[in-house]
Amino acid sequence: MKQEVYALYLASKDRRVPWYARVVAAAVVAYAFSPVDLIPDPIPVLGYLDDLLLIPLGIALVIKLIPAEVMQDCREKAALTMNAGKPTNWIAGSIIILIWVSLFAFTFYYLSGMFAKL
Fold it and tell me: What was the pLDDT predicted at 74?
């Protein structure tokens, strides 16, 4: 599944893919690689639901939106990259972490303002 998600990442950067498919692909890839889940894993049964259901459904949706020849090219590139060693993209990882930290900071700021008024 990691290789397929990486192929979607490559497809999200390909200009032959329609813009809406690139947006959905980027969202699926960001969620798949994000350290924070929609449903936290410690919650029994439900915690793994997003890993077992949401990510594969998102992948299936994006694959239907991407032209077959583009997806095949991206799968081949992903296979070559994965065989050479795991790809690392520190910039993308940093951006995802920055987004999550910003969301937590905004939530904390908002909630602290609400409780200060009480």
Answer: 93
Domain boundaries, the chain: 2-87, 88-118
Q: pLDDT of 65-92, one tens digit each?
A: 999 999 999 999 999 988 887 655 677 6
SS3 1: coil
Give the separation between CA 87 and CA 17, rounded to whole angstroms: 22
Quote the CA–CA distance of 31 and 29 in Å, as a whole number: 5
Other C-beta atoms closer than 10 Å to the C-beta of 93 total 13
DSSP annotation of 43 reads S
Of 1, 16, 9, whose CA–CA distance to 66 is shortest? Answer: 16
The token pair at 44 is 């029994």
Q: Read off the DSSP letter of residue 89.
A: -
